[in-house]
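Exercise 7. Given the encoded structure of a 154-residue chain, write a plausible sequence.
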């Protein structure tokens, strides 16, 4: 086994800073979202994905894959959202074992009401703190890492 390629001071600063920033930023934005709208990050992610489609529907497995969740985890979460009237589970027309998650009118209203506060939180805790150049670099970094991991930004 080859010797580890330890991080130098500059690399360690970047890595540790990224980790700490991500944890604190995610926590703050999640608190703001919950406080402003009563939605969790997971609720917002599901509603956002559903509202991004013209049909306002996703197959359960496709949505689970998009969110990097197991199908069973998403199914349990969607059941809780269904109880709150945000989504509805439907049978899949072409696969009797599959399920389709549909955005309800209540879910659409929830995401429309939550979005302005959520984007303001993202702006105030990240975007507005950066210069135009830093935003460009951050986007480039994200695209590079996501491409390496076989993912896309959207």
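Solution.
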């Amino acid at each position: 086994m080859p010797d580890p390629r330890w991080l130098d001071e500059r690399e360690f600063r970047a890595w540790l800073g990224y980790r700490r920033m991500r944890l604190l930023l995610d926590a703050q934005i999640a608190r703001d979202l919950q406080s402003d709208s009563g939605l969790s990050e997971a609720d917002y992610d599901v509603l956002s994905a559903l509202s991004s489609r013209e049909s306002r529907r996703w197959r359960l497995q496709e949505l689970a894959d998009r969110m990097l969740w197991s199908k069973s985890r998403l199914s349990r979460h969607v059941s809780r959202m269904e109880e709150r009237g945000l989504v509805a589970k439907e049978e899949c027309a072409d696969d009797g074992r599959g399920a389709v998650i549909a955005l309800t009118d209540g879910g659409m209203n929830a995401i429309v009401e939550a979005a302005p506060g959520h984007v303001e939180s993202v702006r105030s805790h990240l975007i507005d703190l950066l210069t135009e150049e830093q935003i460009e670099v951050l986007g480039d970094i994200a695209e590079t890492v996501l491409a390496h991991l076989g993912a896309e930004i959207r």
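Remark. Residues 64 and 74 are 6 Å apart (CA to CA). Students should compare their own answers with the one above.
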